[in-house]
Amino acid sequence: MFICFTKHPEIDQTMAHPIKAYPAQAPIRKFKVSWKVDRPWLQYDPPMNVMKCTYCIKFEAQIKKLLKTKRFIKGCKTMKLESLQCHEKSKAHKSAEQMQIKLLSEIQ
């Protein structure tokens, strides 16, 4: 860890601030097939390297007002489990998921 000494503008004294050392090249994140377990809505597009939500795509018009972002409709490039978990907790996704469940129950 490096220490950076700077003058604090308000109190005019030198303060030490730790600075994280980051690798020059960030690790390349990849889609993990295991993320599809219990997520039938998750679709991965290898040529585009994006993840999409089939439910949100299917019911986009109905959930339009609930959408904060179209990241999982156009394609999410952030290959993190955290991104999936955040999406599946969103009001828009939950609403689209309920519409899918209702549609499937009507078919049976």
UniProtKB/TrEMBL annotation:
<dbReference type="Pfam" id="PF25431">
    <property type="entry name" value="zf-C17orf113"/>
</dbReference>
<dbReference type="InterPro" id="IPR057456">
    <property type="entry name" value="Znf_C17orf113"/>
</dbReference>
<feature type="domain" description="C17orf113 probable zinc finger">
    <location>
        <begin position="40"/>
        <end position="101"/>
    </location>
</feature>
<protein>
    <recommendedName>
        <fullName>C17orf113 probable zinc finger domain-containing protein</fullName>
    </recommendedName>
</protein>
